[in-house]
Design a protein that fits this description.
The structure is a homotetramer of 335-residue chains. Chain A is an alpha/beta fold. In chain A, 39% of the residues lie in helices and 24% in strands. Chain A has 13 helices and 15 strands. In chain A, the strands form three sheets. Chain A has a seven-stranded mixed sheet with strand order 12-11-7-10-9-8-15. In chain A, helix 5 links the parallel strand 5 and strand 6. Chains in contact: A-B, A-C, A-D, B-C, B-D, C-D. At the A-B interface, strand 7, strand 8, strand 9 and strand 10 of A face strand 7, strand 8, strand 9 and strand 10 of B.
Chain lengths: 335, 335, 335, 335
């Protein structure tokens, strides 16, 4: 099978991880170039991984005829623009979430992708986690009958810097967006309306920045099931990522991953590991699997498992949650 | 210590269990009499357990000067009236939930109890479960810092008969009332407002009877924490009773009890027990502990750990939930 | 069904527990009398539980024509003699382990029982534990194919007093005897030879008393499977009672029971309960179930599930272990 | 820090895995060459991973002055000879277990290493597993007091081909050798004597090949603790790798790793994953960590954590087990 030539745009922590995965752990791939607004960052990783091109401006990748696809890991506000340009240049696109915080911009990007006939995969990595995938497949196979209730717990180990909070779009668009996508993914159903509550319990500075740090959203699915998502910006014990789907014939539960399988029992109690602390470690397998899937879609000319529509609807759910929080009532998801 | 003389009013399943516990497993107690509208039921258990009095009319117990306290396990609609009369007769009272579905009647009963200076304990058995009690004590001790989120899962293994559903007061007053009490108990805080959603997913007949069978309630506590309760009338795998309290310094979780500690691993998977199937078996220890506590309160002249106010507020929360379900918005708990 | 009239011989801790169980939790039983060499102990429980007869000398029970069966909970050195006399008096017999430490005495007791045609059940309570019973039944049902390996862990929370150690017969006859019985029970197979190692690691005083406190025994079953038992007199975290049976098609494991289902996760680790601390609490259900089974065998005239042969063979395994410890090689179990 | 130049000898499954790890996941390394008796295998991986040298004869690596160290993954019978030659050529050495099945050859290899002053690390990968490492560190830190009992369960998912069984040296030298090393590692103590039992329960063909497939070994440690190891060539549910260390102050347990954290509860039971099926997946982290450690020892000029003595003593324990199996008694470990 022909090798897929890749360019990576943005080599911060996530970008470097994808680059390394593509270079070393995904077969059928050549990483031809990396770009970053911090040119030295691009040069450093290019040197380490023996990547030919290291530039500041992403246009060099779009203009490069050898490049088949780009991985967009630049700052969120640049995503939509780069998607549009990459699509026009005929490149397949993997883009980290969110496509944009502005629905119009998302629509423009999606339109550009459609027009160009290229592939667009959005970085909802959790769909590729072996545990969540197995849970979803069990539901799809009918193992628990008709789903009635979905419960998603999603808590970060520590809040981001206040500077980031200010530009993040708020907890619903920055953090819960992953859970909105998970909610849709697990049942393979749309959410028709939702109701959000929340407040600032972790750090008053988050409140001063106009955001909240603790939130619960209640979801209504199109076929009548109900869901809840709870978010906290600070779970001192680590990255808490659990789900549960309860149905007419049973219940599927996904617990946290732990670093080791060690327990020590003493005079007081039995002690075992707390969950894996942060997302890079927690979702190692998922980040790799999503990249493999993207490459496979290009090679086999199939539809990416998570695309522009998924990227858009999750943002719309975030806006609905923001609106609901203010209104104090259910808000329908616009489509 | 002087023995406490007891009369039991109503010897259906719960009444018989309490009678047996008082007779055999609680020290310092004489069970002097049992009454039931089905006189034969009273006579049968009186014969089995060698209890002197077995009558149809509970007034014989109230008029009996040797009796110190009554255990009210008759049908719910009789509770308030019997409480008032028992209080006037100077008897201490243990009464199964709910005191009444009518707030005025609850108030009258509570007033009678106060006037008489007798003790009233309401049958919220789950407070006495060793696991939930430990969880509450961990929270009270500051182990998890300031509570931010409470999650209560409470699912019955199968719905009650439709005839019962019709007179039950509905899922919020019949089933979730236990969870409302648990929510208050866990944080030792009042809930100031709540929001209910739900529908009929288990059995259309429940809907035709004017009730729902699946519900999620979001709670706001007086000090700012948030809570969710989910109820289903039918968890095919058994009685699902879990809680979680998440706070600034950690998280307490209570899982289900299982009949055995056996696991069998084969070529397909590892299999272990589903939860204990129903409440009598699940809460064996709790039912006994609440009786011991009631007797101790009489002997030591202390305040029952769960009293008239708890009985009233949980009913008010049930009404608030019913109102919220209709309104589609948060409803404050009236006091 | 006719009530079974019972006399209890010896009302130390175990005897009182059986008496209470028989009086309150086993239907179809009258407890007519209790005896104890400490007459006051007999009188005290007789008064508490309203038992007509309370004497010092057990012969009064054997001579009492109303009594159908006796429960022997006196000191171990009296068991064989009382069994023989009770059998001659035509009483059915439940006897705590061991029947005797002397094989001849065991044989005499068994002969007396056979001659009299009465029932004899020996107190190997663990067979009646719901978890171990389920494990055994899974094996018997072929769930794990042909058994290859059995592993039994059995550790006490603290050693008995040295005064007891001296007369106990040693760790193999006093403590591991339960595990020998469990080993036979789990596979429903005899052990043909065994090899013991061990030493004094917990407390030198146990060594000075001529015993060891830590032991491992390797077993060979008649159909070729292998087993190991490990014992320690002191597991600081409580009563450690686990088993595992590994076979050609899978593995059955039984873990410890814990007091609650609570876990608390904090910045350091996740903490849950250590095992239940001691045997009365650990085997509450088993002690009751063995009594129910004994009464049922009398009522239905069936064979007790654990009888004289089981009582004898476990003592023979204890002697084989003692011999093996000295010899340093495998020793066959004599029959 | 200067890069370490590596040559890999033998690129079967294990050799390829090490090569890939060294190339992509260990920093500070250049893989300069690979050799294999199947030259095409060497050429294939050299092409895939862009490695300059790909030859049939390992001497080309020993003669190459740029190469600092070799990774020996050739067939077991060649290990000792290659170690000696590599040492003479001044190369540091990582060698898969066993060094040899002949003690004299092991001694010659170790002598050559010592004389040359190069580093030798033996491939006991399990020492580098995060769970076992944590367990060992907990023991070393005194968390469980003085160790009394060690239990190692080690069962393969399926037996090797009979052709391999015939040349493997037998279960003790081929399979349990890992557990002998683990036993020493966990307590950081030598085993002074051991006793082996076992038989052929899995497959008669293994017996016909002169080996057994099921074995239990009892160990005595130099400071008085006892250990047991059980091995089976066939655990149908996957690679079963558990340990337990019991001491005067508590107990450390290591359970199996599972592919996902999913549980599904239905009307019958709760089902979760069986263990990870085979060693490459089970010990992914460990195989990488041992390579990192080897490179670090070269760079920092420190002593490898598992060396020639460890490689020798584990083989001696294997011979002791073979002897014990025949003799039916304990055999001392010669040193």
């Amino acid at each position: 099978m022909r090798k897929v030539n890749i360019g990576v745009i943005g080599v911060g922590r996530i970008g470097r991880m994808h680059t390394r995965n593509l270079k070393y752990q995904v077969s059928g791939v050549n990483v031809l170039g990396v770009v970053d607004v911090l040119e030295k960052a691009a040069q450093r990783i290019a040197k380490d991984l023996e990547i030919p091109i290291a530039e500041k401006d992403y246009h060099c990748l779009l203009e490069n005829k050898d490049i088949d696809a780009v991985i967009i890991c630049s700052s969120s506000d640049t995503h939509a623009q780069i998607i549009s340009e990459a699509a026009e240049a005929g490149k397949h696109i993997f883009c980290e979430k969110p496509i944009a915080l502005d629905i119009d911009k998302i629509d423009q990007a999606i339109t550009a992708v459609k027009k160009a006939g290229v592939k667009l995969q959005v970085g909802f990595n959790r769909r590729f986690d072996p545990s969540f995938k197995k849970a979803k497949n069990l539901v799809a196979s009918g193992k628990i009958g008709t789903p009635h209730l979905v419960r998603i717990t999603s808590r970060d180990p520590e809040p981001p810097p206040i500077s980031y909070v200010k530009v993040s779009g708020g907890i619903f668009l920055d953090m819960m967006i992953h859970d909105f996508d998970m909610a849709r993914y697990l049942l393979d159903q749309e959410v028709v309306e939702l109701m959000a509550v929340g407040s600032c319990l972790v750090d008053p500075a988050i409140g001063e920045a106009g955001d909240i740090d603790t939130a619960i959203v209640t979801l209504k699915y199109e076929k009548g099931a109900w869901g809840t998502i709870d978010n906290s910006r600070k779970a001192v014990y680590g990255y808490d990522q659990r789900i549960e789907i309860f149905g007419s014939e049973g219940c599927v539960m996904v617990g946290n991953k732990k670093p080791t399988e060690v327990a020590v029992i003493g005079t007081e109690d039995a002690r075992s590991d707390k969950p894996i602390f942060w997302f890079i470690e927690r979702y190692t397998e998922a980040f790799l699997a999503e990249m493999k899937e993207f490459i496979k879609c290009i090679q086999e000319d199939t539809r990416p498992p998570v695309g522009g529509f998924d990227g858009k609807i999750s943002v719309q759910m975030g806006y609905a949650a923001k609106e609901s929080l203010i209104k104090g009532s259910f808000v329908k998801i616009s489509k």
